[in-house]
Amino acid sequence: MKKSFIGAVLVAASVAGGVRAEPAAKDYTKETPQERAARMAWFNEARFGLFIHWGLYAVPAGEWNGKAIGGIGEWIMNHAKIPLAEYRPLVQQFNPAKYAPAEWARVAKNAGMRYVVITSKHHDGFCLWDSKETAYDIASTPYGRDLLRPLADAVRAEGMTMCFYHSIMDWQHPNYEPLPSWDKAREGHQPDMSAYVKYLKAQLRELVQDYGPLGILWFDGEWEASWTHERGVDLYNYVRGLQPSIIVNNRVDKGRKGMVGMNAEGDFAGDYGTPEQEIPPRGFPEGVHWESCMTMNDTWGYKKSDAKWKSSQDLIRKLADIASKGGNFLLNIGPKADGTIPAESIERLAAMGEWMKVNGESIHGTTATPFPRLPFRCTKKPGVLYVHVFDRPADGAVALPGLKNAVKSARLLAGGAPLKVAVKDGVATIALPAALPDANDTVVAVEVDGLPEAAAAPLGQGPDGSIELSAFDAKIHGSTLKYEESGDNLGFWTNDRDWAEWTFKVTKPGTFDAAMTVACDGKSAGGVYQLKLVDQVLDGKVESTGAWTKFKTVSAGRFIIAEPGEWSLGVRGRKAEKAEGLMNLRSVKLTPVK
Ligand code: FHN
What we know:
By secondary structure, the chain is of the alpha+beta class. It contains ten helices and 28 strands.
């Protein structure tokens, strides 16, 4: 009997026999903040994890029928439009004879990672474990043995937490809707999504009950119309019902705003946001959990042609940047079909491990910087502020304006050499060595009393009375307008309902010239903008500056600020017909008229 038929019999028997009843229906989204904080504690302590994308796609490794296939390696079935009948024979070629789970776990541990997320099933539907629900799994390969169990054992033996990625989207399952548009052989078959959800749940039960306790169920592939918010909430509760302490990412539901990864406003299931291939330019309020996932080159699944490796320095700095904003870094490797990890990945993980060996305390267990804006990334713990210095400042010093805590001492974290601290006008300044000892990221440990705090410097007038309102400090209203760190601007202004707002303090009223620093591509020029200061409005037309990255300062008109106090300025607009966006806005400046 084919295994899939046996599987069906077993599932029927088990349900009939009550061996594995459905978990009790409970709404786990209604937990208290304390319960949630307790459940997220290990995740927030970890800060750094390993992502592993591994499966049949490692066999073609980015080539099909002798041709290089563009895009990320694990999408080859889609990008090369491979019918299931032609893709399935890869099962017979997948034989990771050199798989060494203990070595994989050691590499992750030595890199300073605290958890491992591996693809149990990616979009192609192939399962890395011996599932009772299908024969499209590791048991049908020449290798024949479960890949997940030995890795779970090795990860836990290294004191790390085991987690699974699981794709909702499934290009092989006859009941997943929609069927792959490119697979003409399957045209005419009527999928049944409800039946697919039963399959999905049955496999998740296997993963959570047979490999637990797990740290995270990392869902993905939630974006197609067949996956609904209702299904997302139901699946979140189902998985939490199987293991109440498990963490489930926000891709279980429909709230995710694309690669930005955080949820749109609204009530969506999922315990944390999942920015992908990007780092949010700013942190998030206390209690908002998030994790940036990123590849080391450009592909998640192994691709022999992808040699665009990020440098170890870049990866170390990304880790510090993410931690300084209170997030986790989930860094990916794409093992080869033979079970080995690409040497370039090993090299980078080893370099990160060297850095983490002496600086790990500035990452693990830290929380976000207390400073609204500082030229350095900072992380903090009670009693210590860690300043991450990437490049030596021209004045050779680290100034900490706004730090509320008295500085007791400062030292280089690596090696402990003491550093001179001077305090002038309430600002602590730390003298750096003539040459930074670590070109990647030199960490200065600043000892203070209590948890480091900084005064949130409200926006206000400078010594010359001018008011500089930067994109970084804008309050963004809407779902697509966002701050782009690359250009230090507000961008993706594609939705006319989106707008930006600044609230600032005025101590010296008067008449002010308003000017905006903007960029707009020639083909998108012609939109209209409106600056609004309470009941005063300044309207104007967006002119071309030649490119989205070519900024120019343009006059917008004059405002009268008649009295001191708190004021609020809004910028709205309507993009031109067929324009990509309204404009990129770097700042608004109000300059007093002499
Ligand atoms: O389509 C997947 C992709 O293959 C990869 O798994 C990434 C990793 O987060 N997630 C999806 C793209 O957003």
